[in-house]
Design brief:
- By secondary structure, the chain is of the alpha/beta class.
- The longest helix is centred in the middle third of the chain and has 32 residues.
- Helices cover 45% and strands 14% of the residues.
- The protein contains 18 helices and 14 strands.
C-alpha cells in the first residue's frame, strides 16, 4: 500500500519507518526543510535506539522517502496519516488542534480518489468528527473516510512497541475503511496481535484513558513511597508485593521524582478539560495532575535536606536530565523543575546526560554540562541521580567517592542499594526506603 505520513516528529517518523519495514511505500512529509534535508542525508533528528538503521534500510530499499510538499504523496496514497503535534494550548490546557486541522485542509485540497485519512496524533474525543467536517467543507466532492488510530509507543522502545504491540486500536465508521486498515496492519495479524476495531470516538478516548491510568499508577506508588518513608517501610517491596497480583501488575510501580515526557502531562490535562466541558469531572485525574506537579519541587527539597538543609554555594552534580532513559526528550522532565529549584536555593549545578544535553542546553540556564559521569562529580558536594540511564547503574563507586568533595548521594530512582554507599561512610538518600 502507499502511505503518506504528515509530520516527522517522534510518532510520525517511527510509525512511517515501521510501516515501510512492513513492506508499504511510505512518504514522510514535513514543512521543516532543514529536518527533511537531514533525513535525506541519513541523519535522524531524534534519539531513538535502532531508528537510524531502520530508516537507512528502508530508504535504501526504496520503501521510504521524505518530502516537504505533500501533493504527490497524498494524491497517490491509499492511507494518509496525520501525525502532527497537539501541544497543550496556552492558557487553558486543551490540546491545540490547529496543526491537525491545517493538515486536514491541505490533504483535502490534493487528495485524489477514495482516501482513508487517519488521525495518529493524540486528539480529544470528537476530533475525528471535526476533521471530517474540515475535509468535506474544503472538498465537497471528496471520497474519503476519517479513522482514529492512536499510538502507544514508549520512547526508547518505540520500534519494538510498533512491531510487537500489546494491541492496535482502530476507530472506524465504515466497512471499506476497516478493510483498508486491516490490510495496512496485516503483518500484525500474522503475529496474532489483537486488533481492536471500535467506533471513532471510543478509539480517541482509549488513548487518553490509557495514559491517565498509567499516570495514576505512577502517582499512586509515589505517594506510597512518601508513606513508606514516614512509617519505615520499603516501597520497592510494597511495589513487588502488590505487583505480583495479576489484577494490578508490576509495570509503572517504580517510585521516583514524578512523571514527565511528551504524553502524560499534556494528555492528563487535556482529558481533564474535556471531562469538565462535558460536566463529568475526573477527580482522580485532577488529583494526579496536582500531586505530580508538587512532587517534582519536593524532590529538590529532598536534595537540600540531604545537604544538611543548605545548598547555597555548594556544587550539585546531576546525573540524568531527560524524563526517562533511552531518549533525548526533555519535555516536562523532572530535572526542569528540580534544577531551577536548587539554583534558587543557591546551588551551583553541574550535569551530565548521555543523550539529552543538546535539548537541555535550550531549557536550562547557568548549568555546567559535562561529557561523563566522573567529570560531573568532580569536587561536587552532593550527587543527585534523576534519570535511570543504564550507564549510571554500575558506576565505580570508589571513583565517585574519591572525586567528590562531599559525601551525600540522592538517588531519586532507587537504582542502588543503600548499603552500596553507607558502607563507605557516605550519606545515601533514596525514595520510599
Amino acid at each position: 500500500m502507499r502511505v503518506a505520513m504528515i509530520g516527522t516528529g517522534y510518532v510520525g517518523l517511527v510509525s512511517g519507518a515501521c510501516l515501510a519495514d512492513f513492506g508499504h511505500h511510505v512518504t514522510c512529509i514535513d514543512k521543516a526543510e532543514d529536518k527533511i534535508k537531514m533525513l535525506r542525508a541519513g541523519t535522524v533528528p531524534i534519539y531513538e535506539p535502532g531508528l537510524d538503521l531502520l530508516i537507512e534500510r528502508n530508504v535504501r530499499e526504496g520503501r521510504l522517502d521524505f518530502a516537504t510538499d505533500l501533493t504527490a504523496a497524498v494524491k497517490e496514497a491509499d492511507v494518509v496519516f496525520i501525525a502532527v503535534g497537539t501541544p497543550s494550548r496556552r492558557g487553558d490546557g486543551h490540546a491545540d488542534l490547529s496543526y491537525v486541522y491545517a493538515a486536514a485542509e491541505e490533504i483535502a485540497q490534493v487528495m485524489d480518489g477514495f482516501t482513508v485519512v487517519v488521525t495518529k496524533s493524540t486528539v480529544p474525543v470528537g476530533t475525528g468528527d471535526e476533521v471530517e467536517k474540515v475535509i468535506a467543507k474544503t472538498r465537497p466532492d471528496a471520497q474519503f473516510t476519517v479513522v482514529s488510530n492512536p499510538e502507544f509507543l514508549r520512547e526508547g522502545a518505540a520500534i519494538e512497541d510498533f512491531k510487537r504491540p500489546d494491541r492496535v486500536v482502530v476507530g472506524v465508521e465504515e466497512d471499506r475503511a476497516r478493510e483498508v486498515m486491516r490490510e495496512l496492519y496485516r503483518p500484525l495479524f500474522l503475529n496474532e496481535t489483537p486488533i481492536l476495531f471500535t467506533e471513532r470516538r471510543t478509539s480517541e478516548l482509549i488513548k487518553y484513558a490509557a495514559n491517565a491510568f498509567l499516570a495514576m499508577k505512577i502517582t499512586f506508588i509515589n505517594e506510597m513511597a512518601d508513606l513508606c518513608e514516614a512509617v519505615g517501610a520499603d516501597v520497592q517491596q510494597v511495589a513487588r508485593g502488590i505487583g505480583l497480583d495479576n489484577r494490578i501488575g508490576s509495570k509503572f510501580l517504580h517510585a521516583g521524582p514524578g512523571y514527565g515526557g511528551s504524553c502524560f502531562p499534556k494528555d492528563t490535562i487535556a482529558l481533564s478539560r474535556t471531562a469538565t466541558e462535558y460536566e463529568r469531572p475526573l477527580r482522580l485525574v485532577d488529583t494526579v495532575i496536582e500531586v505530580n506537579a508538587k512532587r517534582k519541587i519536593r524532590m529538590a527539597d529532598k536534595v537540600i535536606a540531604a545537604a544538611e538543609g543548605d545548598v547555597k554555594g555548594k556544587t550539585v552534580a546531576v546525573l540524568g536530565l531527560t524524563f526517562k532513559p533511552n531518549t533525548d526528550d526533555m519535555r516536562d522532565a523532572p530535572s526542569l523543575d528540580i534544577i531551577p529549584a536548587l539554583q534558587r536555593a543557591g546551588a551551583r549545578v553541574r550535569a551530565f546526560d548521555p543523550a539529552g544535553t543538546l535539548e537541555a542546553e535550550k531549557l536550562l540556564t547557568d548549568v555546567e554540562f559535562t561529557t561523563g559521569p566522573y567529570q560531573c562529580v568532580q569536587d561536587a558536594d552532593i550527587l543527585v541521580i534523576i534519570t535511570e540511564w543504564n550507564e549510571f547503574r554500575a558506576l565505580d563507586l570508589e571513583k565517585i567517592q574519591d572525586r567528590m568533595k562531599g559525601n551525600a548521594v540522592v538517588d531519586l530512582r532507587n537504582i542502588y542499594e543503600p548499603e552500596d554507599f553507607t558502607k563507605r561512610g557516605m550519606t545515601y538518600v533514596s525514595v520510599g526506603r
